[in-house]
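Is this the right way to post structure tokens for a design question? Let me know if I should format differently. Anyway, here goes:
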């Protein structure tokens, strides 16, 4: 997996970051700039020209799509007899913001993030950096390499799929139960369709009490609703404990 000579790292613009990525994921970066950008939160964005600032948001967008495809492919092969609904829910559990936040911290990626805000002020910072990192690998080394890293260095090592399968993480049903108990109306709306054919994704907006609370993007409407519901539940739990 190590395709870059250690001697190349000696001339890297960020030897510490290169070494950290090698220690955690088993490879040296090719284009170190991509990885520097992946760990730059928008609060520490650098202006490049005419007010345009560079942060990890674009890489996060790309990494989200790449990660979703990797996980979809993995689950499709791991569970050959399961129906679409099961596969969609399992993918939503794995790529949920809460799960990616945990994985990012567990891997030590949180220590690599450049930010001018505190992590407790931006709950999604760690998970966003994880997605941006996947996007960086994809641009640097291609899809197959990114897939291998995610599966062998993250999924196989840090996720208990059997335990995750048995957890009650049907976020949409939990949110509906909460809304009924609190007598607060909720509504899911498909507000955009991104791409075409098999690559089409749906952007779903979640309204709580007629106000936008969260959104979710996935290759199915159900999956996007689950992601949006998961984000909303995380906010609700955080607010109740603050």
């Amino acid at each position: 997996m190590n395709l870059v000579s250690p001697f190349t790292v000696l001339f890297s613009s960020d030897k510490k970051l290169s070494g950290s990525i090698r220690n955690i994921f088993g490879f040296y970066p090719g284009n170190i700039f991509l990885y520097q950008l992946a760990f730059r939160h928008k609060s520490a964005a650098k202006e490049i020209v005419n007010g345009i600032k560079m942060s990890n948001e674009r890489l996060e967008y790309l990494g989200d799509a790449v990660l979703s495809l990797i996980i979809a492919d993995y689950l499709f092969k791991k569970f050959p007899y399961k129906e679409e609904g099961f596969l969609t829910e399992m993918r939503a559990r794995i790529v949920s913001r809460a799960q990616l936040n945990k994985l990012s911290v567990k891997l030590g990626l949180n220590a690599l993030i450049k930010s001018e805000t505190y992590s407790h002020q931006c709950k999604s910072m760690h998970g966003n950096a994880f997605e941006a990192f996947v996007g960086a690998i994809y641009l640097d080394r291609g899809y197959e390499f990114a897939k291998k890293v995610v599966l062998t260095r993250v999924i196989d090592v840090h996720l208990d799929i059997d335990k995750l399968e048995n957890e009650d993480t049907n976020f949409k049903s939990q949110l509906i139960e909460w809304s009924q108990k609190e007598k607060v109306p909720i509504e899911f709306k498909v507000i955009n369709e991104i791409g075409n054919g098999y690559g089409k994704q749906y952007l779903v907006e979640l309204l709580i009490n007629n106000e936008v609370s969260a959104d979710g993007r996935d290759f199915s409407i159900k999956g996007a609703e689950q992601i949006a519901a998961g984000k909303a539940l995380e906010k609700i739990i955080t607010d109740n404990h603050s």
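Format looks fine. Someone answered above. Worth noting: The first strand starts at residue 46 and ends at 49. Residues 5-11 have pLDDT under 50 and may be disordered.
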